[in-house]
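Annex B.
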Amino acid sequence: MIELSGKNLTVQDVGRVVFKQEEVFIALQSREDVIKSHQAVEKIVEEGRTIYGITTGFGKFSDVYIDACNVTDLQINLIRSHACGVGEPFSEDVSRAMLLLRANALIKGYSGVRSEVVDMLILFLNKQIHPVIPQQGSLGASGDLAPLSHLALALVGEGEVFYKGEVHHAGEILSQLGIQPLILQAKEGLALINGTQAMTAQGVIAYLEAENLAYKSEKIAAMTMEGLNGIIDAFDESIHVARGYPEQVATAERMRGYLADSQLTTKQGEVRMQDAYSLRCIPQVHGATWQTLQYVKEKLEIEMNAATDNPLIFDDGEKVISGGNFHGQPIAFAMDFMKIAIAELANISERRIERLVNPQLNNLPAFLSPDPGLQSGAMIMQYCAASLVSENKTLAHPASVDSIPSSANQEDHVSMGTIGARHAYQITQNVNKVLAIELICAMQAVEIKGTGKMATETKKLYNEGRKIVPSITKDRVFSKDIEACAEWLNSSFS
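Histidine ammonia-lyase: predicted structure tokens.
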């Protein structure tokens, strides 16, 4: 089990909870912090103090005072009115991550919610009850209001949930499991929806997949090097140390390891003096992607452990401050940066695919065809890769440069970070398919060159890959091969 403290959750922890369904529990000190924070809210209500979101309306209605007798209605009205998400729902993985991240933020003790609220989030998580949350509708400032409202609706028994592979009304599942829906008290509705957990959850899922693909792209590229008799000298450590980027040095080291005992690679001058950039510059290009991923991971882990609602409560309620921690700008920038970096893995991969299938650029059969002319072979696979790469270029346009005012211009600058995170995830899916195409083509190329001459590491990948995609002995519906290979790449190989 994973202990939540609101301080040290990592992306790897999120992966364990989301993908391996590891259960979580709340640290004792964090539970005490939640209790103290809620007591401060109770005192504010009893004293009739005017505090945003506790005894006032929201957004442009922040100057409207709400009587103590109406504070519970205020919170449920907030959830219902803000549940305006549209479009296809986030995956269950993202929904699960949102539950985890919202709980982790609330237990920091600045939000004023009862323990029951956090316990309900944890209960949903551990029993794998996942709110149905539409993907579209968040501006990424004032928090992910619409997506998180749909999450909160499930907690009060009014929304929909995924449960055991099917969509149900939340109230039905809670009744079936003997769970009482939450009845929101002062500030609790606002605390549940004022945060960046939709963009951060989708961002973490995209990051984990991107990291996975970044490693796999190198091993696939190593096999392409063999299929094209690439020049190993370009990965010599001295070149990369001379430039000084650690990520570039590390990528070159991995490439040397993958190709250590290959008889298919060449030395400079044996076949040609230099390779094209898509082969020669693998450490420089892939290494730069790794630099970006490290930046993204750092920002995600800060945000995952941040208090992002408003207002925040300090000093046992003596200091309650309205601020802007819900603004998603840090994650918006990180997601836009990751989009560009991951798209580049597909850009350079597609250029390697072109070198594998173009007879003017290699000494292989045209389009890797078993019978050129009669059989088209991998010709249209390259078309597919080119299409995916082009689509990525439009998705990589930064979402964070846009802003549209909302709430009667009270909220006059927003991040669009959730759009950026959604697009980052879409790009990773496209990159996955481009890499699958490169792997299919690389396997065919090394087969032609002689698999007995392959390096130990790339031969392992070849043997596993051939269990998924058989050799191209005649034309067939390659769409199925690409999808099967892409699905396999989403899992791990050694």
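The mean pLDDT is 94. DSSP finds 18 helices and nine strands in the chain. Further annotation is deferred to the next reporting cycle.
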